[in-house]
């Protein structure tokens, strides 16, 4: 029995996903700037026009790749009133350690490529920084509210806390990828939980 024919929207979604996957691989391998839309299209047997019919610009494709390959660790345990900040960080550390197998070469290379692209293309970089700051501000408001509800003082201003947490997690992820086992799970947990001090 033959499978059901895909609808036009399903075909469009498959094409979109294939373009994002091809772009992610090529961006990670060759760099964003060195990867043309022609090259992406060619790996899929498409024309550049087919890529443009899915994405209005290369930057729109870059955004889609970034969104599809970002590994997010939910800060929700930090916002729970029934957990101290230290306990919330302990849960976050557990989630981080469980996510390590998903931190592939492609993910880490893309993270670096997106950073470099933002530095080289100021308008795009400023927009991405603005989005990141807005996200941190929203998280900071939630963290401050939770700390107040728990009767806890935060060790840093809430936005600074999230900057430090993001930097710590990304630094550990890069080092673990580069030199697996260079730092023990217990030490990673201790570093993350230590942000509560």
Terminal CA distance reads: 63 Å
Number of separate strands: 0
SSE topology string? HHHHHHHHHH
Low-confidence stretches: none
Number of discrete domains: 2
From the alpha-carbon coordinates, what is the Rg to the nearest angstrom? 20 Å
Sum up the overall morphology in one term. Answer: elongated
Number of helices: 10
Main sheet characteristics? none
- Helix content bin: over 70%
- Proportion of beta-strand residues: under 5%
Q: Which structural class should the secondary elements be placed in?
A: mainly alpha
What's the mean pLDDT score?
93
What does this structure look like?
With 197 residues, the protein is mostly helical. It has 2 domains: 8-67, Homeodomain-like (Arc Repressor Mutant, subunit A); 70-196. Helices cover 73% and strands 0% of the residues. The protein has helices at 8-30, 37-44, 48-54, 58-69, 76-79, 85-99, 105-120, 122-150, 158-178, 185-193. The longest helix has 29 residues, at 122-150. The radius of gyration is 20 Å and the shape is elongated. The relative contact order is 0.11. The model has no long low-confidence stretch (mean pLDDT 93).
């Amino acid at each position: 029995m033959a499978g059901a024919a895909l609808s036009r929207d399903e075909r469009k979604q498959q094409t979109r996903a294939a373009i994002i996957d091809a772009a992610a691989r090529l961006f990670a391998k060759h760099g964003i700037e060195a990867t043309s839309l022609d090259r992406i299209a060619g790996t899929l047997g498409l024309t550049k026009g087919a890529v443009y019919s899915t994405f209005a610009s290369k930057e729109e494709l870059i955004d889609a790749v970034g969104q599809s390959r970002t590994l997010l660790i939910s800060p929700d345990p930090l916002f729970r009133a029934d957990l101290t900040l230290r306990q919330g960080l302990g849960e976050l550390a557990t989630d981080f350690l469980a996510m390590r197998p998903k931190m592939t070469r492609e993910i880490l290379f893309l993270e670096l490529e997106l950073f470099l692209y933002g530095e080289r293309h100021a308008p795009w970089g400023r927009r991405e920084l603005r989005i990141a700051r807005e996200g941190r501000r929203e998280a900071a408001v939630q963290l401050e509210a939770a700390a107040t509800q728990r009767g806890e003082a935060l060790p840093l201003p809430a936005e600074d806390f999230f900057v430090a947490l993001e930097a710590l997690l990304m630094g550990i992820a890069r080092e673990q990828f580069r030199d697996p086992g260079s730092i023990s799970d217990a030490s990673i947990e201790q570093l993350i939980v230590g942000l509560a001090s």
